[in-house]
Amino acid sequence: MTLQLIVFIVLALFIAVCSVLAVTTSRILRAATYLLFVLFGTAGIYFQLNYSFLGAVQLLIYAGGITVLYVFSILLTSSQGDKAEKLKNGKMVAGAVSTLAGLAICLFVMLKNEFIPSHFVHGELDVRTIGHALMGMEKYQYILPFEVISVLLLACIVGGILIARKR
Amino acid sequence: MMFAGIYGFFTRRNLLAMLISVELILNSVDINFAVFNRYLFPGELEGFFFALFAIGVSAAETAVAIAIIINIYRNVRNIQVKNLNEMKN
């Protein structure tokens, strides 16, 4: 029972509990807070995998940007004391049954599968490798998706401003 | 996490709560890609970059979805999905 395993189990339980709480609570601002905890837990898993760059990006964009966006929009669009009303029992049971069936199928497939043997390379993934792979033009390098995602972000910025502006 | 997100998407009626469930699904998929890359393909970086770009794309999509929801709220004053059943009022 190494320390890595203990840390992973703690993080995984934290993420699982917070995600279930995020979808079953009736107050929506609490759901946004539980989502923030889930995003912190996910960044913790990335840091444990030695993917520090991905963990830092996750913290910046998700926990720092998107959560603030959600809190703003929740406070703009909900009246005071607005709680989600309870669903009819039939719908909740149907949702839970279908979700649990899907989870059972997924777990069955995962546990029966024989993965190729895992060779874990210890050590940090350094930023120089990431930089060369992101900006290079060779076969396995990613400059084209980088440019495309910059155009996509520009389009989303312009579209968002256009949709939500004051008339 | 993914199945919690799917359950939330099925059973919630507030549009923002449905978006939160979609965020849970996307996060779970990113973890999956990063772990597969780290453990099974240590020489290559495909899973890492897929997760990176997926984080970026989901941020953009969340921003546009929230802009649309704010616009809906300005016109209809309600964001429960059972009240949004007409295209033009």
Automatic annotation (TrEMBL), chain A:
Keywords: Cell membrane, Membrane, NAD, Quinone, Transmembrane, Transmembrane helix
Pfam families hit by this protein: Oxidored_q3
Membrane topology value: Multi-pass membrane protein
Places the protein is found: Cell membrane
Catalytically driven reaction(s): a quinone + NADH + 5 H(+)(in) = a quinol + NAD(+) + 4 H(+)(out)
EC numbers, comma separated: 7.1.1.-
GO cellular component, one term: plasma membrane
The UniProt record lists the keyword Phosphoprotein: no
Gene Ontology molecular function, alphabetical: NADH dehydrogenase (ubiquinone) activity; quinone binding
Regions that span the bilayer: 6-24, 31-49, 55-78, 90-111, 142-164
Enzyme superclass (EC): translocase
Domain of life from the UniProt record: Bacteria
InterPro entries xrefs: NADH_UbQ/plastoQ_OxRdtase_su6, Nuo/plastoQ_OxRdtase_6_NuoJ
The family this protein is said to belong to: Belongs to the complex I subunit 6 family.
Function: NDH-1 shuttles electrons from NADH, via FMN and iron-sulfur (Fe-S) centers, to quinones in the respiratory chain. Couples the redox reaction to proton translocation (for every two electrons transferred, four hydrogen ions are translocated across the cytoplasmic membrane), and thus conserves the redox energy in a proton gradient.
Protein name as it appears in the record: NADH-quinone oxidoreductase subunit J
Annotated source species: Phocaeicola sartorii
